[in-house]
Amino acid sequence: MVESDSKLSVTYYGDNTEVLGKAVLHLTAIEVSLDVDADRDGVVEKNNPHKGAWTWGPEGHGAILLVNCDSEQFYHKTPDSDRKHITAVSDLNDMSPMVLRTKGPAQLPPGYKLTLHISRGDAEKVRVFFPDFVKRYPLVLDDQVLSQEVPYQEETKLYVEGLRFPDKDFDGLLKIHLSLLEPISEDFPETPIYTDTVVFRVAPWIMTPNTLEPVEVFVCSTKDNYPFLKGITGLAKKNNYKLKVCYEYKNRGDRWMQDELEFGYIDSPHQHFPVVLDSPRDGDLKDFPYDELLGKDFGYVTRVPEDEEVNSLDSFGNLEVSPPVTVNGKHYPLGRIIIGVAFPTSAHGRNMTKVVQDFLWAQKVQEPVALFSDWLYVGHVDEFMTFVPAPGQRRLEMLKHFLNEIDNLSLIYHLLHTYLSVCYKLFKGLQNDGHGKAKIFDGLGPDEEISVDEILDNERLKSENDYVQNCIDWNRDVLKRELGLDDDDIIDLPILFKLMEDNRAVAYYPDMVNMIVLGKELGIPKPFGPKVDGRCALEAEMTSLMEALGLNCTYIDNFASYHKLLGEVHCGSNVRRKPFELRWWNLEM
Amino acid sequence: MVESDSKLSVTYYGDNTEVLGKAVLHLTAIEVSLDVDADRDGVVEKNNPHKGAWTWGPEGHGAILLVNCDSEQFYHKTPDSDRKHITAVSDLNDMSPMVLRTKGPAQLPPGYKLTLHISRGDAEKVRVFFPDFVKRYPLVLDDQVLSQEVPYQEETKLYVEGLRFPDKDFDGLLKIHLSLLEPISEDFPETPIYTDTVVFRVAPWIMTPNTLEPVEVFVCSTKDNYPFLKGITGLAKKNNYKLKVCYEYKNRGDRWMQDELEFGYIDSPHQHFPVVLDSPRDGDLKDFPYDELLGKDFGYVTRVPEDEEVNSLDSFGNLEVSPPVTVNGKHYPLGRIIIGVAFPTSAHGRNMTKVVQDFLWAQKVQEPVALFSDWLYVGHVDEFMTFVPAPGQRRLEMLKHFLNEIDNLSLIYHLLHTYLSVCYKLFKGLQNDGHGKAKIFDGLGPDEEISVDEILDNERLKSENDYVQNCIDWNRDVLKRELGLDDDDIIDLPILFKLMEDNRAVAYYPDMVNMIVLGKELGIPKPFGPKVDGRCALEAEMTSLMEALGLNCTYIDNFASYHKLLGEVHCGSNVRRKPFELRWWNLEM
């Protein structure tokens, strides 16, 4: 017979229903729950039944954690995750809220305890803080304290801080447990009688393709790059994008803004911010990402090999990302990362260092594609390909989408690809039309100038470009296969290469594919091609191809200050872009 | 106009259809294909369209590779994978066949080459051999040779050898590529114009639960274990199982056959064999797995921590596997591995070493469950649980299966679990019936004997067992949750524990759950319980519980030679069993 929720009275009867005895059983019901935002709406709900498991997709569940890799402090800064204490209340915004809720008697029975705990493996990847009554945030759990008693009170708000990005040895999943411990007697250890578990996935680092809207353009100022700087500044201003110039005192002549860093971001239901991936390249620009970018709500991450030399393939001109693609029915709505490595058939090629490759693959949501870039002297994928939006085709695209006929998003952009025979064909056309004497590098001085006839007569150059074409065709096949592209999705640009002493290739004239893409505006290396009726034939061809896509071309003179140093506009610039509207946890993996 | 398959004649006409010229184009079509058993029927098919990707399930595809961890050689033996050459033709049976097929002209055009290649990352996990005309098997690819030219001939049979099991840093997948290289001119490197890729998954190491049929029983012979040896020998002979006795000169007194090793197997469509996992425990039995088990078609693998001390939880009495289970709709048709670790709430407990845990988790097909075993002095899961088949229920099971009502296979076995109150209840029953003076350890000498009354009066013992019960209840909850068991699936056995000085528990009398399971025959530690009418009350209870399941009990006296040394029948024996009929690649993962 139940007397109340917490008391049970038991009456013992004899055979003749006489009462033999009475007993009262006191019940203590204690409800404890560790709560997180398992449904990913930005709010911590109450005891979500799915909080202990993590699944992908719009119907998925499981909480999300950011690596707290920005810096709340301006002076003596360091990523917040490197500090064991909280320096500013705003830092809590970068952490995931977690609530410990209890229901039951005003106090736990004597000897009972609530304990929060993590495994040794997880302890190096996560910290838990909680605010005490004086609004300080003491550490509850970290790599030194794997288990700690927490107060028994109706509601305790806690904050969970992520410390490490997913990597080769870390799938991104972390668990935090709450246990109610029961004492047996003073002589023995307490034993858990109930454990509640929540799971977090650390948000991946996500790259932003050229099709996303720019926010800020980055370039270096050097003694000799005025025409370039003027060109880029004009483009940025035209669209009201922010422009950040890194001056000589900081860049020390290192102008390769593309190569030192890659912009990306991290995202969660409660917070998101940009994160720069610092290349292990470490030229004279090496302090720029840490000194100038790391800051409040601007994160920083790097991967540096321990016992391996870095090489030119470790520069981030060799790290790009495609727009969204669908490949054989498999969707990559955040695109696919593209890197360049050595030919698989070659045992002695240069490669991107393993720690960076491992990091990129471990992010999972933009599964990388490896191209062959070691055939190039500098060895960067941005020397022979880029992606441009195709705004003119977007309406068609929308229509197809409504008709449910679309199975590839690739129509909203095009892959631009160098293609040598396009150049030879164009030059032969000029020759046939009587322009064989027209000069490349016209006006750049007699040492540079060379006629169309001379180029077409150069057998050695022709055979070098036959070789290069083979290398490019290989990559074209890989891109078609791995990005699900048709020939129609690829636009071939007229480029010419020449080989250096080690049989590796460099652009013969400014490499137009190495452009900056700012919405509909393209900043293209001025090719200094042969002139017909006063107009550069290469520019004319390029402009005609791009205008058909609804894009505007601006040709930027980077001949002396970049091209002669084996780079172009793209190598010398960088763009921070808006994040994807699609949230990564909604991917179906 | 096509003249033949390999010649195209082109005629140029003028406006008035007059012939302007003629040209003949010579076409060379070369078909190359790297073929494997991608459909897993034991035969290498021709150019399977799915050979380049690996998927799970009955409809899955992708080839399978064994770690060549047995030893063809009897003298100076070592796992074959540790040798760079093939010592016996029979070794080819342990490798996966791969065929390079070509079709086209009798010879490749001048300068063209076929090359087989692997990535640097894969090179430490795989080797490729091929037989040349004198029937020797030279190495084609290994960690020193990542790329090698292979002959252009109609059919070349190759053999692929696996070297490493899946582990924390290796998901088990490997790729081998074949490329056709085209020369441009002597001055430049050749470039691949076509690449064919095959993928292999290295077969996981699979454990065999008690419900699988025994093949061979393993025990040690020591100076003092005659009654035990006789009992086990009798059981094995009764069922015609092979018996392997490890004699004193080899075991040097180390009798814990369960703890030094775990039997498992590896399986592929073309070959399968048992593989022993050698424990890092390394007692005096440490050479037994390598010296006595490793051999032709008997593999060997071990994992030893580099800078960590091993402890008692690293013995393989602490490594078991459940029969097939279904948990919340998720099937584990090969069961789940069970290990024992420290309480998650405890920061200072003993754990199974990380390298062994990593290995077990990486096998994937028997996803492990971690129980809490650190509360035990010896710390092994086999001290408080085991699985027995339930042959009497199998017909019911089959019926349910036909009716398609079954969603848990657990009915074909039962989890046996120690349960202390069962023992106290049984002893109180004896006391009430006037048998309080009956003695445990009756006949084992006055130092050992103790009466039922004395045990029930021992308050300290009672409180120790209250603590132990809490530890066991925790494990019971975990097992129910992680194996999808009902209370009906669990049979509680009467066991009593006592605590040692460090508050860790040992069995008070021989721990009946620590039994050997050989089909329907159970070899159970003789408990030496209190006698009623000349019959041991504990044996009577145990026999009654087991007979209800259709199982036969044999009680084996291991009191002096095992129990007093803190182990029992299971700790002192091991059983090699038949593999699962279900092939692991048919799992839906």
From TrEMBL, chains A, B:
Gene: padi2
Residue ranges annotated for the Protein-arginine deiminase C-terminal domain, each copy included: 193-586
PANTHER family: PEPTIDYLARGININE DEIMINASE, PROTEIN-ARGININE DEIMINASE
Entries under SUPFAM superfamilies matching the protein: Pentein, Peptidylarginine deiminase Pad4, middle domain
Record's GO cellular component terms: cytoplasm; nucleus
GO terms, molecular function: calcium ion binding; protein-arginine deiminase activity
Annotated protein name in UniProt: Peptidyl arginine deiminase, type II
Coiled coil: none
Database matches in InterPro entries: PAD (IPR004303), PAD_C (IPR013530), PAD_central_sf (IPR036556), PAD_N_sf (IPR038685), Prot_Arg_deaminase_cen_dom (IPR013733)
Pfam families membership: PAD (PF03068), PAD_M (PF08527)
Ranges of residues in domain Protein-arginine deiminase (PAD) central: 30-182
Residues annotated as the enzyme's active site: 259, 380, 382, 571
